Amino acid sequence: MRNFAIRNGLYLSIALSLSGCLNTPDGQPNDIVNAGLAGAGIGALIGAVTGDDGGERTRNAAIGGVVGGAIGAGVGSVAAKRRVAYNAESASLDTEIRNASNDLAASKNVARSARSALESENQRLAALKRRSEQGQNIAADTERSKQRLKRQIASLDAEKASLAEEISHYEAVLSSARAEPGEDPASVQQKVAQLEARKRQLQEQYQDLNNIQRNTRTAVNSAGSLGEV
Q: How far apart are CA 49 and CA 64, in angstroms?
């Protein structure tokens, strides 16, 4: 059963969806405020699913909410600026959909590389274990393996942070998307649905990165155990 933090993240995300956008006095969506709220919800939700136990998920959700809110406010200002760069919402959404697709492809390449590197490192650790069983000194090689794995963990941290910011950006775009005068609302809604689908894929990609990182930490622990033999 999901814990309190996860339910709170879900409730916040649902509440944001149901309440709609907050508007400026002239009736226009307030991109910065809406993005900050959306970022807090996303950050809390992502944080809540990345812990290994209830306490860690609760702590991660709280941290994710604060960090997500700050990131969301920042990307909200970007979303506000992009609004004036296009004469039609559909043209803006087309660009965002392309960007999201590129972001997803780039992150998948990072994940593919990280997964391949982890597989190679696990093979090295298996070979080191056999050498250790034969009485050989593997301390130096084990330490080098641990350092490579730790660098990969740091690299995955950076990629996850970048991906979280991208997700928050697209949430800001979606929260303020609307048909401009003279545009076909149905066409805009179709593009909104496409961007929403890309955002979900990015969220799934974040979880994939998190799984790779968790497996990499397991490999670090295995290397540590070998070093103690």
A: 10
Range of the domain at 42: 1-85
How confident is the model at residue 88, as a pLDDT? 75
Are 147 and 165 contained in the same domain?
yes
Cβ contacts of 152-155, under 8 Å, gap ≥ 24:
152/114, 152/117, 152/118, 152/121, 152/216, 153/213, 153/216, 153/217, 153/220, 155/110, 155/114
The share of the chain scoring above pLDDT 90, in percent, equals: 53
Q: Are residues 194 and 213 in the same domain?
A: yes
Position 12: which residue type? L
Q: Do 74 and 134 share a domain, yes or no?
A: no
* Total number of domains in the chain: 2
Mutual orientation of helices 139-176 and 54-83 as an angle, nearest 10°?
A: 50
Is the pTM above the cut of 0.85? no
> In terms of domains, do 33 and 71 share one?
yes
DSSP, collapsed to helix, strand or coil, labels residue 203 as helix
Residue 7, pLDDT > 50, answer: no
